[in-house]
Amino acid sequence: MISSSPPSRRPTALLSTRIQCAQADCQHDNPADQSLCERCGRPLTYRYLWVVGQSEGVNPAHVSPSGRYRAVSPRVWLDTQPAAAPDLPQPWPEEALPYFHLFPHRLHVPVLFGFGWHGGQRLMLLENGPIDGAGKLLPAIAPSFAAASPTRQVYWLWQILDLWAPLRDYGVAASLLMPDNLRVEGWRVRLRELIPDRLHPGGQPSLADLAACWLGWLGALQIQVADSVRSLCEQMQQPIADTPEGLRAIALQLNDLLLQQSTQLALKLAVAGGTTAGPQRAHNEDACYPPAQHSAETSLTWLQSPPDLLSGLGIVCDGIGGHAGGEVASQMAVRSLVMQLRALLYEVAEETTVLSPDVVMQQLEAIARVVNNLIASQNDSQQRQSRQRMGTTLTLALHLPQRINGGTAQELYLLNVGDSRAYWITPERCQLLTLDDDLAGREVRLSRATHAEARKYPNAGALTQAVGIHEGDRLYPTVQRFMIDEDGVLLLCTDGLSDHGWVEALGPEVTQLLFNDQLTPQQAVQTWLEHANQRNGHDNASVVVMRCRVTAQAPKLFDPTVFDPTVFDPTMTERAIATAMPQPAPDADVELSQASRALLFDNTLDAPTPAKPRPKGDRWITVLLLGITLLTLGAAGVQIWRQMHTRQTPRLWPSAPVDQPATRDPMDSINTQP
């Protein structure tokens, strides 16, 4: 756990300790009752480490033998020299390897930091563990079930099942079978450590073992979900459950249960965005959606009348390639994404079956590759080579309101490429949801260095991929699905804000003002941009704030007569998609250069293919179809609809999974700084 918590939350035993500033250009020793460095004014890093090994009996009042650690409890140590490199053995011990391979799952899995010594025994030290800002372990999952809502209970189980396959592949599935090893932080399930399968008393763990664990929690489950979970556990105990097909079937059933429970929650979103060139840059190569001139606040449920299909969309892009390239790439990406996602949401609105998470993820990956190929084609047409090629980072958040049994599921999908980030922030905590595509992360996945070690490389922040640099078959976006079951703020931002840990340090405070109605979402965006300019200031910055309020109140009925879905022609080409969408207006303090405007609008793109207007009769057929689906009209209405519906509209988004992409080449790095 890396914390910037208020001094009052820190253990009293540490108040006499000195903590070193983690910034390489500072490293000043500070009292442990400070949140900001006395010299440079940047946030101090309080890195709490979970100790794996026989460390019982360590006195919290004494420093460990290496001198840099202070024991908060027998198995929780504080690193007082976060700028120093940890002790690392070579070669890596066998028990350390799964931590490298599972680094992409760091939202749930701890990260290897280094090694320490106590009593002549080598101890493994883990960062990013389930430890709060006061150095205390987060609650165990078993006693937390009783106070959790039905949606959260199923969401915890879904996360555990989602981790089963990757942990099993690396021989540590036993980590999910020991309840004390499973900790919860609000909605999120976290592992205290990875436990090798060879230590499991029953031999190789199976889904039957996981089912036995879940059955032990059955008495604490809410009545709405207990019977369904019991039925799933019975299926997990069958031999076929351990096959890929069996695991997928169980996952789909658990997902259906999760979506059904989430329909009991009414979600109200308020989304705002903005971007700034910053005090040191003449041009702004960032772009975002919604732009500063537009913000949306709506109850996103198909039982109400949404004013805009894109009311649950946020995008930030950080362009690469200079003001005649980077700003073009980021603007082109936003425009193309808006057009394609509007079409996707229109299709979801008409869909009568539930799309599984893997299908939605594949659709979003395909959309990102379309954007990638548009920019790559622009590079090729201008004969841009190597570092001259323009590209962009991309982080987008999409609320996908799927209709289930008359309600709306509260799913949130995140897609990211590059080092722009997404955070989930409440007044109590700040959680980083995305993983940067940079050289430091690649070195960890290849087991070449710990993340603490790789972060100190001179080119640690060099991007390993970005949108538009290469062809689409070499782009591997990370797509994640989350459920919104609590009040919070989703913050998307480029590195002009996220550098130096300011989001983690200030996030809960700004979010508290937002939920106290002392700030509107647009004012929160401006607050973050001011922090970016004043506390960093070295780069452009873009921010999207998505405020989420969750209630259990039943929403009003949907009025189909006021729903006018956006018309989309599925025959449009990729270039037409990129150019047909009106460009979000840039911030007032940023003007595109004449060369960039020529690149973006006129000279090199083919003329946009006009969208084929849909006949008015078809529009009323669509309205009637929605009315029938949502209001369950009688047989007479169904018969009328069948008589009027004379043709089928071609589907742009197939419901079948697309082919899997080729295996990523981990050595492929663009080595380009945004």
From TrEMBL:
Q: Which keywords label this protein?
A: Membrane, Transmembrane, Transmembrane helix
* Any matching Pfam family: PP2C_2
Disordered as annotated region, ranges = 651-674
All residue ranges annotated as the PPM-type phosphatase domain in the record: 293-548
Is Membrane a UniProt keyword of this protein? yes
Domain of life where this protein originates: Bacteria
Which SUPFAM superfamilies has this protein been placed in?
Answer: PP2C-like
Provide the transmembrane region boundaries: 620-641
Q: What is this protein called?
A: Serine/threonine-protein phosphatase
Name the species this protein comes from.
Thermoleptolyngbya sichuanensis A183
